[in-house]
Amino acid sequence: MNQSSTTRSILAVLIAAALVVSVGSLATMYTLPADATKPNHNDDDNGNGDDNGNSNGDNVVNTLPLQSQMTPDSMGTSNPNTGGVIGGGDFATQQQEQIQPQSQQLQQQQETASSNAACGQVVSGVVNLTANLNCSGDGIIVGGPNTVINMNGFSITGPGQDSSKVAIMVPNVDNVVVNGPGSLSNFQAGVLLTGANGFQINSVILSNNQIGTFMTGAENAQVQQNIIQGNSIGVASHSSTGSAIDSNLMNGNLLAGITFVNTQQSNVGMNNVVGSQNGIFLDGQSSQNTISANNVLENVIDLNNANGLPTNINANQYVDNSCETSNPSGLCIGR
After folding, report:
1. Half-sphere exposure of residue 64, counting CA atoms within 13 Å on the CB side?
2. What share of the chain is helix, strand, coil (3-state, %, to 5)?
3. Residue stretches of the chain with pLDDT short of 50
């Protein structure tokens, strides 16, 4: 089974389970259908995409390798006794002549890496957006580790919350970074992170999606300094560990600002969470998480630990949170 098929199988089961929360409107279940992870598209949003996710249109992606392909062997071996290069003579001269154009070519490639990714394209390396993307299918699918996506103030807009499409998909790929400013809107998920380690997203507006950022089977993800508003759920985490959700502005996410299901050893700190059914919800299988120094106000229930489960049962810590209502009571400052 290939990576795409594996991811589709995971999502069909896990996303349904992750978003079922037995509190009022949170009992509503949202699912991302299996084809949401399919990286192959025939969309014509930004050119005529082929079955391999490549675009033949005007918008193309330039990716930069994070390391040069040149190795020390290609440069010869220094002789400490003579100060020369072993092999000497014409051979050494030829090697130097070959290296110089390669170095110049690499420098030129780095200087011109400012191209726009097409909708549905599989990308890796350093990706710079230079225009807005309006996609009828998925936005960007990350295909390699250490990928950096620079939004550069542009937006990726999808076909609607009720679609099965994702703005940025990160399937089993580590150390991916999404840098704002920029926006991800009108998708079923702004970001879909499955089985990845070390993901980061910062300074991005995630709005009008069913889920702003969805993490499943992820480790050490960081969601920091974003504006997350008008989604059904702002941030959802399933079966993940070591996440850091810090310093985000969350407003008007209908069902929940943050939802944890079977999530461990994660930190939620210094967020503003306003105007949801549940501000921050952790289910009974989510343990050893720290919820600290958040402003969680004007939600039906601001802090909800597994529908009133005592915190000593799942070892979650609630410290210095400014809020008005909690379940169980006593999780807010002075309440």
Report:
1. 19
2. 15, 35, 50
3. 1-96, 99, 103, 106-114
